[in-house]
Amino acid sequence: MQSGPPGPPPRPAKNRSPKTILKAIGVVFVLGTFAFFWLTSLNDAGNAEAGDCVKKSSSALDDGLEVVDCSGGGAQYKVSKVHDGTSDPSVCSAGEDAYVKTVHRRRRADTAMVLCLTPTK
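The structure assignment produced for this chain is given below.
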């Protein structure tokens, strides 16, 4: 007794070589590192706007200032003006502290900005 054509052959088991596993670990590591630095840069001085409060940062990963909530007790300065495209601290008025931020880029031109700060205390 014949029952019809034979079924498809079974699929071979996937072979995960150590090289493939190491590549996957490397991709996860690179993506995790990128995500970490992107998340930590969300509150740095480069994202400050007029009216934001900032404080001196204790993290070695950023540029020295971080944006904080103005209602919290940690605010040391309030950003009165932001001047993009310059690194000249004289753009700030008398009585204001100037904070100059320059970002060095490998493939694009460097960017600079000046934050004019007034003490909150």
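Interim note for the steering committee: The chain has a mean pLDDT of 79. Residues 18-40 form the longest helix (23 residues).
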